[in-house]
Amino acid sequence: MEELMYRVIEMYGDCEPWWFLEGWEEDIVSSRKFEDYYQALKYYKQKWLELNAHFPSYKSRSDLMTIFWDTKEQEWCEDCSDDVQFFHSLVLLEDEHKIPKSKLRPGYEKEKGSRKHRSCQYTIDSKKGTTLS
């Protein structure tokens, strides 16, 4: 039987991680690999609690992908003439893919705070504050 690899990733950027938009890997700020799902889940929970303590708002999904944000972390986008929200994201992957349905955690499906719908088609480079098309 083939061994599965799990990875918990922290990201910072202007897109929710569940879209897996082209170049999403550029937003990774830390990553940790695990051979055991439950060890990865334990680490995910620990990071989730840490981020929850620091940010007033979050959207958490049963597929173990969460965004945390503070409305003070926005940047103006010249191209769309609007403020773009930045997110601190946490993701647990299995073999570099979303976790399978058998490992969904319905208890994580919750939300605190609201965010406006993103209408900008550009991605802001969080390291430079410039837009990329």
Notes on the protein architecture:
The protein has 133 residues and is mainly beta. It has one domain. It has 1 helix and 11 strands; from the N terminus they run ββαβββββββββ. The chain has one helix spanning 37-54, and strands spanning 6-13, 28-34, 57-60, 65-69, 74-77, 82-85, 87-94, 97-98, 110-112, 123-125, 130-132. Strands 1, 2, 3, 4, 7, 8 and 9 form a 7-stranded antiparallel beta sheet that branches. Strands 5-6 form a two-stranded antiparallel sheet. The radius of gyration is 15 Å and the shape is globular. This is Superoxide dismutase. Residues 120-133 have a biased composition (Polar residues). InterPro entries: DUF1033.
Structure at a glance:
By secondary structure, the chain is mainly β.
What is the secondary structure topology, with strand pairs?
Layout: E1 6-13, E2 28-34, H1 37-54, E3 57-60, E4 65-69, E5 74-77, E6 82-85, E7 87-94, E8 97-98, E9 110-112, E10 123-125, E11 130-132
Antiparallel strand pairs: 1-2, 1-7, 3-4, 3-9, 4-7, 5-6, 7-8, 10-11
Characteristics:
14% helix, 1 helix, two-stranded antiparallel ribbon, 38% strand, 7-stranded antiparallel sheet, single chain, 133 residues, mainly beta, globular
